[in-house]
Design brief:
By secondary structure, the chain is an alpha+beta fold. The chain starts with 7 loop residues before the first strand and ends with a helix. 8% of the residues are buried.
């Protein structure tokens, strides 16, 4: 059997918090609760049945410190 451990993908949704709540209610294990990322994403992490990490996010403004470093 193959394992997806070590692989990661990201998907964008309209509202990461609502999607997290929906998935949790459906019995999906949330590996990381929704968190504001400094690069401009609100994201949470789940794992698919093969062990692939799935980052689910929606865009938010980047943190000022991060934005200052990218210009």
């Amino acid at each position: 059997a193959r394992s997806g451990k070590g692989l990661a993908i990201g998907i964008s949704v309209a509202d990461a918090d609502k999607e997290c709540d929906r998935l949790r209610a459906a019995g999906i294990t949330i590996l990381q609760d929704p968190t504001d990322m400094p690069w401009g994403a609100r994201a949470f992490v789940i794992a698919d049945p093969n062990g692939v990490s799935v980052l689910v996010s929606h865009p938010i403004p980047a943190a000022a410190e991060y934005a200052a470093c990218t210009h």
